[in-house]
Amino acid sequence: MLAHAAAAEADSYGLPAMDQDRAATLDRIREAAAGLTQGLPLYAAWARLLEAELARAERRDTPEDWLAAAEALRVSEQPYPRALALLRAADALAVAGERERASTAAAGAAELARIQGDVQLAQLVRQLTDRARLHPVEGAEQPGAEPAQAERPTGAGPVFGLTRREQDVLRLVALGRTNRQIAAELYISPKTASVHVSNILAKLEVTGRGEAARHGAPAAPGPGLTTAPCRPRRRADHGAVPTTAPC
User: Fold this and answer.
1) Could you tell me if 113 and 68 lie in one domain?
2) What residues contact 102, with CB distance under 8 A and at least 6 apart?
3) 176: pLDDT strictly greater than 80
4) I need a surface site. Which of 42, 62, 135, 138 has the fewest CB within 10 A?
C-alpha cells in the first residue's frame, strides 16, 4: 500500500495542486514505512520497491534503484510488482541512453505481463518500446495486437514523404509540444528534435510550426503518443534532456 501511495505521488509530479504538499506526504510515507519489519526477504523486497518509488517521486531515481528492486522481488510469487520495477528500469535506462539494457529490462517486464495475462502492462511495455525505439519486445505481444514496430496510422491526410520518426514528431508538433518536450517524449535530444522539425517544414513546404500542425493533427494519437500535456520527469544523465511521465 505504501509503495502504491509513493507511486501516486510520483505520477502526479508537476501538478500544482499536488506539488504543494508532496514533501509532507512523502515524509508521512517514510514514517509509516519505518515501523514495518524487513526481516523476511519478501518484506525487504517490497521495501526496495518503496524506496525506488519515493526516489521517483523526488525525481532522483536511477536505473540501479529499479534493477535492485526487481532483483529483490524475485522472491515474490506476484509477478506484477517485479514487472513494474523492470518497466521503470527500462524507462530509466532508455533516458540514460542505454538502449541494450533497456531492451532487456523491457523484455523481462513483457514476459511477466504475458505470464499473468496483464494486457494493460503489456501495452505500457509496447508504448515504451515504440517511443524509445528499443528492440522489439516479443513477450509484450498479445493476440490481435499490433507489433510495437508496426507501421502506425498517420491520420486521414497524406504523409508527404515523411519518415516514421518525422510522423511521430509531426503529431507532437500538432499537439503543441516544444522541441524539448518532443525530445523528452521520443527519447531523443532537443537538437535531433529540432532537425526533425526543420526537415518536416521543408517537406511540407511550410514556414512555421502552426502550418505544419494543420497537416499533422491526427484523428487519434499513435501508440505511445498522448494528447494530454506531459509533465517534466527527470533530466537525462547523458544530455540533460527531461523526460515525461506517462500522460
Assistant:
1) yes
2) 89, 90, 91, 93, 94, 132, 134
3) yes
4) 138
CATH, residue 183: 1.10.10.10
The closest of 178, 149, 148, 160 to 216, measured between CA atoms, is: 160
How are beta strands 242-244 and 232-235 bridged, if at all?
Answer: antiparallel
pTM of the predicted protein model: 0.64
- Which residues lie closer than 8 Å to 71 by C-beta, 6 or more apart? none
CA distance 96 to 140: 22
Q: Are 132 and 92 in contact (CB under 8 A)?
A: no
**Helices 119-132 & 179-186, crossing angle to 10 degrees?**
120
pLDDT of residue 161: 82
Q: Check pLDDT > 60 for residue 246.
A: no
The DSSP letter of residue 144 is T
